[in-house]
């Protein structure tokens, strides 16, 4: 019986070398004659705001009126008292020990913010929440009304 394997011809060898050199020039599967992508460039961070709870837009897309309302909201948020979580100082076993927004336990040293209704949250969690809705996530008490009334009594 004869040998079933065909010995490579010079045409087969030249095709093999050509396909290997083509693959090497393509790199990671890029098309020939295509320039490699530019190096990664970090895009500048553009904040996203919520002019209404269900609507998110880039800061550059907000109207002037929406920008004013968001600036006022940020100002009110920064007037809310803040602190650092310390369970030993609170002393009560019945105290809530978890942020109801992120559902994570408070840890000693966590930055927290107090709402006028006396509920506490992680500062980052409640600040983000208040940018969308100005009510307490636990009792739904309007934060701005309580905050503004505290200014009027002083």
UniProtKB/TrEMBL annotation:
This is RING finger protein 11. GO terms for biological process: ubiquitin-dependent protein catabolic process. Residues 99-139 form the RING-type domain. The keyword DNA-binding does not apply. Interacts (when phosphorylated) with 14-3-3. Interacts with the E3 ubiquitin-ligases NEDD4, ITCH, SMURF2 and WWP1. Also interacts with the E2 ubiquitin-conjugating enzymes UBE2D1 and UBE2N, but neither with CDC34, nor with UBE2L3. Interacts with ZNF350, EPS15 and STAMBP. After TNF stimulation, interacts with TAX1BP1, TNFAIP3 and RIPK1; these interactions are transient and they are lost after 1 hour of stimulation with TNF. Interacts with GGA1. GO terms for cellular component: early endosome; nucleus; recycling endosome; ubiquitin ligase complex. One of its GO terms (molecular function) is zinc ion binding. Keywords: Cytoplasm, Endosome, Lipoprotein, Metal-binding, Myristate, Nucleus, Palmitate, Phosphoprotein, Ubl conjugation, Ubl conjugation pathway, Zinc, Zinc-finger.
């Amino acid at each position: 019986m004869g040998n079933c394997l065909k010995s490579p011809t010079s045409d087969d060898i030249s095709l093999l070398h050509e396909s290997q050199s083509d693959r090497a020039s393509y790199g990671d599967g890029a098309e020939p004659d295509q320039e490699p992508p530019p190096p990664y460039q970090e895009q500048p961070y553009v904040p996203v705001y919520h002019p209404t709870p269900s609507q998110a837009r880039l800061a550059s897309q907000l109207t002037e009126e929406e920008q004013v309302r968001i600036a006022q909201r940020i100002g009110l948020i920064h007037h809310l008292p803040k602190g650092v979580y310390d369970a030993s100082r609170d002393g009560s076993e019945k105290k809530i020990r978890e942020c109801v927004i992120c559902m994570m336990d408070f840890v000693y040293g966590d930055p927290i913010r107090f709402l006028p209704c006396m509920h506490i949250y992680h500062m980052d969690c409640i600040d983000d929440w208040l940018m969308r809705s100005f009510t307490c996530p636990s009792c739904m008490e309007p934060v701005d009304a309580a905050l503004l009334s505290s200014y009027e009594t002083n």
